[in-house]
Amino acid sequence: MKSRRFVKTFGLLLIVAIVAAAIGFCRYLDSRIANYGRIETLITRLAITRPSDVTDAQWSGCVYWTWQLHTNYGGHNYFDHSASYTFADEFEQKLDGQVSLQTVDWIWDQYIQHTKGAQRYSDTYRPTTHEYLDSADNRDYPSLDEWKSRLRERRQ
To answer: Which residues contact 61 (CB under 8 A, 6 or more apart)?
Structure first.
């Protein structure tokens, strides 16, 4: 009789532990997904902060490639969990200040520092290089108006 009661109690405790772990994991993922979306919005906000010394095409390329960087390396499997929240807070502060090509470089440097694989991606696609800036007019990036439209959609 005691062994049946033990088995039932143990089984119930095991189920409670599994459910609690599942809830905790779901909350963790929800938090990560929300922060991923927050960073996407911050990247899209770059579209409304074009520096005066950068053309529309150049800045659109910076937004586009930074968006691609985040798409490829911003997920919870790549970007260091604890660092992603600090990064988002610092990114938001930078957007509230003077934005420049150095801001874009800072973003890329953060991905290199906190992810695996972003260094190689940066070596190939960093949009602030002379190669990308000089060829921006010949590339088919979404326009700044398209990025601004995406930002409006995200804010709704």
So the answer is: 127, 132, 133, 136, 139, 141
Amino acid at 83: A
Is 7 part of any domain? no
Q: How far apart are CA 110 and CA 92, in angstroms?
A: 14
Residue carrying structure tokens 């290199």: 112
117: containing domain:
35-155
On the 0-12 / 13-18 / 19+ scale of CB atoms within 10 A, 21 is: exposed
pLDDT 10s digits, 34-52: 688 899 999 999 999 999 9
Render pLDDT for 52-109 as a digit per residue (tens, 0 to 9). 999 999 999 999 999 999 999 988 778 887 888 899 999 999 999 999 999 999 999 9
**Alpha-carbon dihedral of residues 98, 102, 108, 113, nearest 10 degrees?**
-100
pTM, 2 dp: 0.78
Domain membership of residue 23 (yes or no) is no
CA atoms of 52 and 58, how far apart (whole Å): 11
Number of domains in the chain: 1
Report how far residue 80's alpha carbon sits from residue 92's, in angstroms, rounded to the nearest whole number. Answer: 18
